[in-house]
Write a structure and sequence with these properties.
Layout lengths: L20 H8 L3 E5 L2 E4 L1 H21 L2 E2 L5 E3 H7 L1 H4 L5 E4 L5 E4 L4 H11 L8 E10 L14 E11 L2 H21 L4 E5 L9 E8 L5 E6 L1 H4 L12 H12 L3 E3 L5 H7 L5 E16 L3 H4 L2 E3 L5 E3 L1 E8 H11 L1 E2 L2 E2 L10 E5 L5 H16 L4 E4 L5 H11 L3 E5 L1 H5 L2 E6 L5 E5 L3 H4 L3
Parallel strand pairs: 3-7, 19-20, 19-21
Antiparallel strand pairs: 1-2, 4-6, 5-6, 7-8, 8-16, 9-10, 10-13, 11-12, 11-13, 13-16, 14-15, 17-18, 21-22, 22-23
Helix pairs in contact: 1-11, 2-6, 2-11, 6-8
Length: 441
C-alpha cells in the first residue's frame, strides 16, 4: 500500500480526552475514531490489526477442537429470565423493546442462547463433548466508558462454550481452553499470566483471568517471576492427551499468581522468594469459567447418559477481548516515539521510506523493492509522499511497523539501503539486491 493513497489521519498532538497511552496512540495514528462515548469506528490501520488478532484467536480455537458458529447481537429477554440473570445483570445490560413490545436485549454475553441452541441440537452423550465459539460484537452500557477500546461499551469478543456429560470431562474442556489461551497470547508476542479470579456475573466455580503486565492495568497483580522466565514461544500440545493437557495447567497454576481481589500477602511471602516476587498492574485480555449446571439446570439442557438416564450438561465459558487486545498490546509494547507492534499482529510488516520523492533513481529503486516484496506476500506500507525525511521517520516510528527499509540517493550510490528494527532500534546497511530475500511473508 502506498501511503499517498492510504487513509491514515495522523494527529500531531495527543488528544485531550485520551488518558492512557493506547488510547492516545490509537487516535494519533488514525486507527480509530470515536463516534459516541465508548463506541469507535475502526479505520483502515486499526482494522488491519483487529483482523490479525481475530485470525490468531480463530486458528487457536480451531486447533483446540472448538467449532465456530455465529449468534445474533440482539437476544430475547425470555432466555435470560429463565436463567435468572435478566434482572440480576444490572444496568450494564442494554434492554430494548421491539415494535411488538417484546423485551429484547443487546447481548453482553451468550451463555443462555448457546445453551438453548445446544439443548435443541443434542440429545445423547454420544454427541459430546462439544465446544462452540463465535467472534461477535457485544455491548455493555458502562457507567463511565474510558480508556478507549480498553473499557468501551461496544467491543469485539471471542466467546466459547463447552458442553460435557460429566464434571471430569468438563474439567478437560476447561484445561484445553487454558492451554489454548497460553498459545494464543504467546503468538501475539504476549506473556499473559493466568491468575485465579472471581466469577462475577457469569457465575460458577473455576475461573482464571489472563493478564498482561502494564503500568496502566486496571488490576493490581502479584506473581512469581518464574512466569516471565518461561519460554512460551515453542508451546505445542496434543489436546486429546488428557494427562498432558492437565500437566501444563498444573505447571502454570502451581506458581503463585493473583489479582488484588484474590491476593494473600502471607501466602505470597511464604511461597515466593523475595527476589522472585513481582507486583504491578495488569490488563485482563482473557477470562475462562467453569460453571457446571448453572445454565443447563434452569434451561433444561440435559442429555441421555451412557446408562440411559438423563443427566444435566456440564458447561464452561471462555472469553477473549479481541478489540481490547489491540489496546492491551500497545500498553505492553510502546516507547516515547510510538507503538512497537509484535510482527504477528502488525498492520504491515515493513515500512518502506523514500527519502527523496521525485528523484527518478530513488523512486525506481523503491518501486522495484515495493513490488517485489508485495509479490512475495510481504505486507508493505510505502511512504512515497513528498515530505521531509524527519517527518517520515517520525510517522514510521509512531505507527510502529516492525521493520523500516530506508532508501535515499546517498545509499543508492553504494548499492545499499538501511534496515531498521523498530523494537531494538538496531540499524544495518543491506545490499539492495538482498532486501527482498531478507523478509518472509
Amino acid at each position: 500500500m502506498r501511503l499517498s493513497q492510504y487513509f491514515m489521519p495522523i494527529l500531531r498532538d495527543d488528544p485531550k480526552e485520551a488518558e492512557i497511552i493506547s488510547h492516545k496512540l490509537m487516535l494519533r495514528t488514525g486507527m480509530i475514531r470515536q463516534e459516541a462515548a465508548g463506541s469507535y469506528s475502526w479505520l483502515p490501520m486499526g482494522y488491519r490489526v483487529l483482523r490479525k488478532i481475530e485470525k490468531i484467536v480463530r486458528e487457536e480455537q480451531d486447533r483446540s477442537g472448538a467449532i465456530e458458529v455465529l449468534m445474533p447481537t440482539i437476544q430475547p429477554a425470555d432466555l435470560w429470565r429463565k436463567s435468572g440473570r435478566y434482572d440480576a445483570y444490572g444496568k450494564e445490560m442494554l434492554r430494548i423493546k421491539d415494535r411488538h413490545d417484546r423485551d429484547m436485549l443487546y447481548g453482553p454475553t451468550n451463555e443462555e442462547m448457546i445453551t438453548d441452541i445446544f439443548r435443541q441440537g443434542v440429545q445423547s452423550y454420544k454427541d459430546m463433548p462439544r465446544n462452540l465459539y463465535h467472534i461477535q460484537w457485544k455491548f455493555r452500557d458502562e457507567v463511565r466508558p474510558r480508556f478507549g477500546v480498553m473499557r468501551g461499551r461496544e467491543f469485539l469478543m471471542k466467546d466459547a462454550y463447552s458442553f460435557d456429560v460429566s464434571r471430569e470431562a468438563g474439567q478437560h474442556a476447561y484445561n484445553k481452553m487454558f492451554v489454548a489461551y497460553l498459545r494464543t497470547f504467546a503468538r501475539m508476542g504476549l506473556k499473559a499470566v493466568p491468575m485465579r479470579a472471581e466469577t462475577g456475573p457469569i457465575g460458577g466455580d473455576d475461573s482464571h483471568e489472563f493478564l498482561v503486565l502494564a503500568e496502566t492495568g486496571e488490576s493490581g497483580v502479584f506473581f512469581d517471576r518464574a512466569f516471565l522466565d518461561m519460554d512460551w514461544s515453542a508451546f505445542d500440545i496434543d489436546y486429546d492427551d488428557v494427562a498432558a493437557v492437565a500437566k501444563v495447567v498444573d505447571t502454570f497454576t502451581s506458581k503463585y499468581a493473583a489479582t488484588d481481589e484474590k491476593h494473600d500477602a502471607a501466602e505470597f511471602e511464604k511461597r515466593v522468594p523475595d527476589a522472585a516476587r513481582v507486583s504491578g498492574r495488569g490488563i485482563e485480555v482473557g477470562h475462562i469459567f467453569f460453571f457446571g449446571t448453572k445454565y443447563s439446570a434452569p434451561l433444561g439442557c440435559e442429555v441421555q447418559g451412557a446408562d440411559g438416564k438423563k443427566v444435566l450438561v456440564q458447561s464452561g465459558s471462555y472469553g477473549i477481548g479481541v478489540s481490547r487486545l489491540v489496546g492491551g498490546i500497545i500498553e505492553a509494547s510502546h516507547d516515547d516515539a510510538g507503538i512497537i507492534w509484535p510482527e504477528p499482529v502488525a498492520p504491515f510488516k515493513v515500512g518502506l521510506i523514500n527519502l527523496k520523492a521525485g528523484d527518478p533513481e530513488t523512486e525506481a529503486a523503491c518501486v522495484h523493492i515495493y513490488k517485489a516484496l508485495e509479490a512475495k506476500g510481504v505486507e508493505v506500507l510505502y511512504d512515497d509522499r513528498d515530505d521531509r525525511p524527519g517527518a517520515k521517520f517520525a510517522v514510521m516510528d509512531l505507527i510502529g511497523l516492525p521493520w523500516q527499509v530506508i532508501i535515499g540517493p546517498r545509499g543508492l550510490k553504494d548499492g545499499i539501503a538501511e534496515v531498521k528494527n523498530r523494537k531494538t532500534g538496531a540499524r544495518e546497511n543491506v545490499a539492495l539486491d538482498q532486501i527482498v530475500a531478507r523478509f518472509s511473508a
